[in-house]
Amino acid sequence: MNETHASSLKAEPFSAAQAVAAGMDFAELQLGSNGLFWNEYRPEDAACRIWHWRDGVARCLTPEGFSVRSRVYEYGGGAFCLTPDGVVFVGEADQQLYRQALDGQPEALTSGECRYGDLHFAQGRVLAVEEHHDQHRLVAIDLADGTRHLLAEGADFYAAPIISPDGQRLAWIEWSRPHQPWTSTRLMVAGRSADGGFSAPRCLAGDGVEESIQQPRFNTENRLFCLTDRGGFWQPWGETDDGLQALPSAEADHAPAPWQLGGCTWLPVGESYLASWSEGGFGRLALNGEDFTGDYSRFRHLALDQPFIYCIAASPISPSAVIAIDRASHEVKVLAGGVAPLPAERISRPQTLRYPSGSGEAHGFFYPAMSGEVKPPLVVFIHGGPTSACYPMLDPRIQYWTQRGFAVADLNYRGSSGYGREYRQALHLSWGDVDVEDACAVVGYLAAQGLIDAERAFIRGGSAGGYTTLCALAFHQVFRAGASLYGVSDPVALARATHKFEGDYLDWLIGDPEQDAERYAARTPLLHASNIRVPVIFFQGELDAVVVPQQTRDMAEALERNGIAVEAHYYADEHHGFRRAVNQAHALEQEWKFYRRVMELAD
């Protein structure tokens, strides 16, 4: 083994526990008359809690025994909203709504089997997406007594209910199977009726054409705006007498794929707007055309008042933080988070990747190894989704690898969001093909530039990323070993067991399981386990309802029967995606030790 590489492995300068502990995150920033609020996740207990910031002081509102998280569509989002005297939130344990005054304790507002998400408060009622088994609708819940009012039903899915400032119009997003919210949705509007309810809705956009619309917003003059990708990117458009009209904007995505409810990456301000968008994967932020990006590279959950812009932001050298940007001076104040687990000089910075692959090109970020080795080993990160994305921000998990002498390629393979509709649609009927091609091509690309040792390349991914990982190992001889975290090994079995939100997604990604049976067979890692000739490590939650544990057991057993070195770790208390700090740290450390043993055996 290379001496420099060996010493870097032994040093262990940044532990798995430290990497996981630095993974605090924030969501759903909201601003109201009582101050600023956000939902805060801390790895040590895997709970999400609402925090309140006012006059320079932050305090936790959520008492012990509660966690604020929605599970609507399984991925949740929009788990709380502001009320005149406090908040209404979704309790993670029972998925019911709770009302809580700023100086009080939570009180149940609903009860029963329904789940709630995408909360929005207006005129004494909480608007919400209601889920009852596989049925979804929009409802309004009276804040005073919990009385439920039906607002809309009949579509397969709903999102983003919002009422105009004058209370006269209700707008929302809906879509129907087999579409996903990033392929085709509709913008619906209903006017106030004489009896105080709402009249029959009309479709303002998305009727009869495929466009993805998200984040409807009213300005203070009651004009309706939204983001739509009808021009090729998710960009802001405004309502006119003739439909929607594009606002001047960058030719770039102004939002990620809406896997979760409650996103806010733009806000109309008069006839202009505050927005974040992606340029080459790096985030930008501007208000009325004035740039406020500064040193940050990702912006989420925007809010503003006269003095400040508020958002959740991150940079290549700082993790997620709640920040306030002075609109006059551009000075940034960090309100919560943002503490890097390593000194800036020890942090590996992301470099933009844009490389040829197949008949196209792919994107991502390259993180150099923090060691003196000229050609270090490489770990290729494959994000989940697969219609999701990775971002050039400080990720302690990536730094865990770079601190140990590994370079990292964090990929936005074709099909990822953030690069426009055409790039996002590239996975149509091509999952397990173009994504795998991109994962393999990056190794040759980086090796040709002398940046990595192609003989020591590893690949890892979770969920859909685990599927890409297993396909890469089964159908290409590029990687020395791989790691599948709750990864898909049998897409047909996944289609039978998956939930409604993704019920038709595999048909879009691969094809009809019956009509395209040969294509499924050709892209099912479990059926081609005999092709895998390198070691594989598996991590699986026993409570996973998305990728059931049996998928992992079947794949691991098939490899073992073929004499392949296999290691599998099962976690009794984890669902789809690990949330407990002890489990996250264990998985990260075991994966590193696994690769180390593979390299030692090769040497």
What's the main sheet like?
A: 8 strands, mixed
CATH topology group of the domain at 3-18 and 348-602: Rossmann fold
Question: What value does the Rg take, in angstroms?
Answer: 24 Å
Strand content: 35-45%
As laid out across the biggest beta sheet, the strand order is 29-30-32-31-33-34-35-36
Q: What portion of residues is helical?
A: 10-25%
Q: Give the distance, in angstroms, between the N- and C-terminal Cα atoms.
A: 6 Å
Secondary structural class:
alpha+beta
Write up what this structure looks like.
By secondary structure, the protein is an alpha+beta fold. It has a domain at 3-18 and 348-602: Rossmann fold, CATH 3.40.50.1820. Helices cover 18% and strands 36% of the residues. The protein has 11 helices and 36 strands. An 8-stranded mixed sheet has the order 29-30-32-31-33-34-35-36, sandwiched between helices. Helix 5 (434-448) crosses helix 6 (464-475). The longest helix is centred in the last third of the chain and has 22 residues, at 581-602. The termini are close together.
What's a quick, concise take on this entry?
Helix content is 18%, strand content 36%. The chain is an alpha+beta fold.
Features:
single chain; 603 residues; alpha+beta; Rossmann fold; 11 helices; disordered N terminus
Task: Reconstruct the topology from this structure.
Blueprint: H1 3-11, H2 16-21, E1 25-32, E2 35-42, E3 47-54, E4 57-60, E5 80-83, E6 86-90, E7 97-101, E8 107-108, E9 115-122, E10 125-132, E11 135-142, E12 148-153, E13 157-163, E14 169-175, E15 186-191, E16 202-205, E17 213-218, E18 224-228, E19 235-240, E20 243-246, E21 266-269, E22 272-279, E23 282-287, E24 290-291, E25 298-304, E26 308-315, E27 318-326, E28 332-337, E29 351-357, E30 360-367, E31 378-382, H3 396-402, E32 407-412, H4 421-424, H5 434-448, E33 457-462, H6 464-475, E34 481-485, H7 491-497, H8 505-509, H9 517-522, E35 536-541, H10 549-561, E36 566-571, H11 581-602
Helix pairs in contact: 5-6
